[in-house]
């Protein structure tokens, strides 16, 4: 193995953990992840790194970066547009004819082949390798459309193109590797998956145990992978393993059948039921040395992180489609179900549910477009993609449980009902692509990292070197030791209290209610720098272990990001009901942040929106096929 890796210096997180009393092993393992993060940063031009990202600048910058929230969807060329339209048509026809799934209720081989013929699997592959290469922002919006037809088919495109073998090869493959492997991935001759999770390694990727040892011109792989979506014999996987005790990625072409060196490990899994999610066991399995991917600055974790960001945006796009499907499916029932002489579509509680679901769709649409645009522009997008993933998965869960299930009542649990048959599909995104609260901690760590390195790392080292556990500014010795390193922080803190420290965001033209919410979010983001800094000062070296405090601050900042991004997106929309939906979401988030009671005006906004949706005026769910009402009855 000969990747060019930077010298493994102790990272800020590793230093902080050691200074805070964590064990050498915990500090080393956490430091390995932090190092991979820094290596990932180094792949990007400075202006596109985390410190130049919209979220980082919105919190820490001298001016609010409104222009970095003004996303524009890149346009796919005519041929790629035709591919996407043809694929939508194929899936609709197969579903209508009952041929989308096979006898095992998995996406059928016929479906996979027909999609391959139309070019579905090459949407993210460059044209020189047989694909049609769609810009990621356009691809993500297409996934939302596909998810309204079938969420599993949409998810398989994300697995194949974002976190599967396609993205690692496009980003890190040599010309020879790309020429050999990308054409068969683009054609659909071989579909792909990504094998990262292990029985002992989920969020803790330092616990990887699968190894690959070089023997001649081949690597010999031993180990087990778990929860691998889209894996069956004959597919191509990006395998994260240890080579010389360092994470690496091998592109593995699985044989067409199991053998003594390679076995599939099936298990019962409620979610992802229409595709294959299985384990893989390798016993002295051989992979050509030439299939090793090498990051120019980093290792296998660097390669893994790259595709995960795209997968997170794709997840949010899928959520936008699934919530649309749920909302569309609520309307026939709300019109049919009569209580006390009136259809429940006329009841305020149901109208509020419809309006709030539209708000969740607006948030998902906004984050999908914005995140995809940032990746197209060349940004790393780590924090922005995390926000999209967390919001999308939590929005889908909220829509399914709080609004869709409760409106359908007992019929939700009937066999054949969209909720009852798919509840695990609606909830699973909260876990895969990174569990939400754990990702929220990663979001905050990325956000405060530069501030910590600049001001708090020097203070922490002085405290550690002088064995000061509880600094007291009235203690002359403490004051003397800390003065040189505390001065810059105190100067920064003083500047934050001066007039003009928080500059008003320069907003584009938008409706007054939307502008009010947008300014609230912008001010909240700017002021959150003090909240972050005060938290760091309060907990000092123990901050890495204060997960609950970090999670609460992270959640508040994420809500402000969702609020601002959604309002900026809504300002460009022509459909008045879509704008109203964004306002509903913004009002909900503002109340969560302030603790205020809902006002009569806000209730009128959401119920009026719900009533318009019930009347069929909401364009985002037009032309979506709905399911028949179960246990129908005739009204008197």
From TrEMBL:
It comes from the Bacteria. One of its GO terms (molecular function) is acyl-CoA dehydrogenase activity. Residues 193-242 form the Acyl-CoA oxidase/dehydrogenase middle domain. Residues 92-189 form the Acyl-CoA dehydrogenase/oxidase N-terminal domain. Its EC number is 1.3.99.-. Residues 298-441 form the Acyl-CoA dehydrogenase/oxidase C-terminal domain. Keywords: FAD, Flavoprotein, Oxidoreductase. Its cofactor is FAD. Belongs to the acyl-CoA dehydrogenase family. PANTHER family: ACYL-COA DEHYDROGENASE (PTHR43884), ISOVALERYL-COA DEHYDROGENASE, MITOCHONDRIAL-RELATED (PTHR43884:SF12). This is Acyl-CoA dehydrogenase. The gene is mmgC_1.
């Amino acid at each position: 193995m000969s990747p060019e890796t930077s010298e493994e210096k102790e990272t800020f997180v590793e230093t902080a953990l050691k200074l805070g009393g964590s064990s050498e092993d915990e500090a080393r393992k956490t430091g390995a992840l932090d190092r991979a993060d820094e290596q990932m940063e180094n792949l990007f031009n400075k202006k596109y790194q985390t410190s130049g990202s919209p979220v980082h600048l919105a919190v820490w910058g001298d001016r609010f970066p409104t222009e970095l929230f003004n996303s524009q969807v890149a346009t796919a060329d005519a041929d790629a547009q035709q591919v996407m339209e043809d694929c939508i048509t194929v899936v609709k026809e197969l579903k209508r004819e009952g041929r989308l799934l096979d006898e095992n209720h998995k996406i059928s081989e016929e479906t996979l082949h027909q999609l391959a013929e139309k070019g579905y699997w090459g949407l993210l592959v460059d044209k020189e390798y047989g694909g049609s290469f769609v810009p990621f922002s356009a691809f993500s919006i297409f996934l939302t459309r596909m998810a309204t037809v079938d969420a599993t088919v949409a998810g398989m495109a994300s697995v194949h193109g974002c976190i599967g073998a396609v993205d690692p090869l496009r980003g890190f493959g040599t010309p020879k590797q790309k020429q050999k492997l990308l054409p068969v991935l683009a054609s659909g001759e071989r579909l792909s998956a990504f094998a990262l999770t292990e029985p002992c390694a989920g969020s803790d990727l330092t616990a990887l145990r699968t190894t690959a040892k070089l023997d001649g011109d081949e690597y010999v792989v031993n180990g087990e992978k778990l929860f691998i979506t889209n894996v069956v014999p004959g597919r191509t996987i990006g395998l994260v393993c240890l080579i010389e005790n360092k994470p690496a990625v091998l592109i593995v072409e699985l044989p067409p059948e199991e053998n003594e060196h390679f076995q599939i490990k099936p298990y019962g899994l409620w979610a992802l039921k229409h595709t294959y999610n299985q384990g893989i066991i390798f016993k002295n399995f051989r992979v050509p040395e030439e299939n090793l991917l090498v990051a120019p600055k980093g290792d296998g974790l660097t390669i893994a992180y790259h595709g995960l960001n795209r997968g997170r945006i794709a997840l949010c796009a899928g959520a936008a489609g699934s919530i649309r499907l749920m909302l569309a499916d609520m309307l026939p029932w709300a019109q049919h179900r009569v209580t006390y002489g009136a259809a429940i579509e006329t009841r305020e509680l149901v109208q509020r549910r419809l309006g709030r679901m539209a708000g969740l769709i607006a948030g998902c649409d906004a984050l999908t477009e914005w995140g995809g645009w940032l990746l197209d522009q060349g940004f790393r997008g780590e924090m922005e993609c995390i926000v999209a993933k967390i919001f999308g998965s939590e929005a889908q869960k909220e829509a399914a449980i709080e609004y869709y299930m409760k409106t359908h009542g007992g019929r939700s649990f009937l066999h054949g009902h969209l909720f009852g048959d798919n509840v695990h599909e609606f909830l699973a995104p909260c876990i895969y692509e990174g569990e939400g609260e754990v990702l929220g901690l990663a979001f905050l760590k990325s956000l405060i990292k530069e501030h910590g390195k600049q001001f708090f790392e020097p203070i922490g080292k002085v405290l550690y070197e002088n064995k000061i556990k509880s600094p007291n500014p009235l203690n002359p010795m403490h004051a003397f030791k800390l003065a040189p390193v505390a001065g810059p922080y105190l100067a920064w803190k003083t500047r934050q209290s001066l007039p003009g420290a928080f500059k008003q965001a320069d907003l584009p033209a938008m409706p007054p209610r939307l502008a009010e919410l947008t300014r609230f979010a912008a001010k909240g983001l700017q002021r959150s720098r003090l909240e972050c800094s005060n938290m760091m000062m309060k907990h000092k070296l123990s901050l890495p272990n204060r997960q609950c405090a970090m999670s609460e601050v992270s959640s508040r900042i994420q809500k402000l990001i969702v609020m601002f991004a959604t309002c900026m997106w809504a300002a460009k929309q022509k459909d008045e009901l879509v704008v109203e939906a964004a306002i509903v979401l913004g009002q909900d988030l503002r109340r969560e942040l302030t603790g205020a009671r809902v006002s009569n005006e806000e209730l009128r906004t959401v119920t009026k929106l719900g009533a318009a949706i019930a009347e069929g005026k909401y364009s985002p769910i037009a032309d979506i096929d709905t399911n028949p009402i179960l246990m129908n009855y005739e009204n008197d």
